[in-house]
Amino acid sequence: MARKDNCTIMQCDRCQTLKYFEKQDDHGFKEWWNIVRFDADGSQHDYLLCARCHEQYVNKLKDADNEFDSWMKNGAQS
pTM of the prediction? Predict the structure, then answer.
């Protein structure tokens, strides 16, 4: 591998995709997402996701939102 100075290296915490960017305005740089997730115990976890994994993550969040909304609405019926 050639030497590369003054660059940003990003690796997706889920799929391990690795990308190098020389500047923050390089094509694709803004397609990476830093996310913060809290688990069931309230512990915070920070992750870096590529665009593809972030899209899948957002879909999981939407499913979880729908399940939570349904659970909340049915609380008075329990």
Answer: 0.82
